[in-house]
Amino acid sequence: MITNLNTQEAENYIKDAEKLKKSWFYRNSKLLKAAELYKKAGLIYKLSKKWMEAGDAYFRAATCYNKQNPIEAITLYIDSSNCYRDYSSSDAIYALNNAVELCKENGRFRKAAKHQIAIGEIYESNLNDIHSAIAAYETAIELLNNEMDETKQLECYEKIAIFYSELEQYEKTIDIFFKISKISEKLNKSWYSTNNYILNAGLCQLYQNLRDNVLPNKLMNILNICIRFNNDFKDSDEYRFLKNLIFSVEKKDPEYFVQILQDFDKRSPFDTWRLKLLLQIKQFINMKILC
């Protein structure tokens, strides 16, 4: 167990490091020694579960390494952010931003994108700031262009599409799902189903049309849009599911709607986002607001 004496030792390390930083003699070597002292203090604070103090110590160590050992500095900025994360989201993001900039300066774009995604996760989970989360993921996609990493870009696009749906900007959601269906088709990976992304776009279009009071007999046009985008879609289970779903909406038949969902869910279980969207669609049948 870490004692108060150990914490006092950490404070002494911090004081000694500050003295070294103020000395202009042998400036570079003094900075490296100061960084080591900050790291020692950070470890003690971390083991003592003094997370803000640990974050501060690791951050100071990182700034000492910034120019002389940027790779070590990046690691310490991440350590700092991890300590801050549950206690000060703004400090956690600031530390990660420093790591991103150093990664970019040193051509480590994949790492920069990884840390940019972590920033997006903090905005999403800790701050519920969807707009900033979208911006973070968009920046990650730009960074991944340097690495031609379309697999990771696809995952980022999918997050952005879901964010836009939460903001009820369904046109943007639809455009992105169609876009990532093309990326998925190009990647040709079994775990990225092109038809699933097209289905998501179709479901969003259905929900948008219902919100806009589009006449029920016009809803089947959604299928034509999906087929025009990818002709192979018409031979898929996802197409048949969407077609039957639209038919149940046209007929205002909630029982048939539920049966369709249950049958499809047995073959391809719904994730939370899709199930929520389907239940929102079902509300239009229950409320009988269709013409």
TrEMBL record:
Biological process, per Gene Ontology: intracellular protein transport; SNARE complex disassembly
GO annotation, cellular component aspect: SNARE complex; vacuolar membrane
Keyword Transmembrane helix: no
Keyword check for Membrane: yes
One GO MF term attached to the UniProt entry: syntaxin binding
Localization: Membrane
A Pfam family it matches: SNAP
Entry keywords, A to Z: Coiled coil, ER-Golgi transport, Membrane, Protein transport, Transport
Membrane topology: Peripheral membrane protein
Signal sequence, renumbered to the chain: none
Gene3D superfamilies with a match to the protein in the record: Tetratricopeptide repeat domain (1.25.40.10)
Alphabetized InterPro entries for the sequence: NSF_attach, TPR-like_helical_dom_sf
CDD domains: SNAP
Family: Belongs to the SNAP family.
Role of this protein: Required for vesicular transport between the endoplasmic reticulum and the Golgi apparatus.
Protein name: TPR-like protein
Species for this entry: Anaeromyces robustus
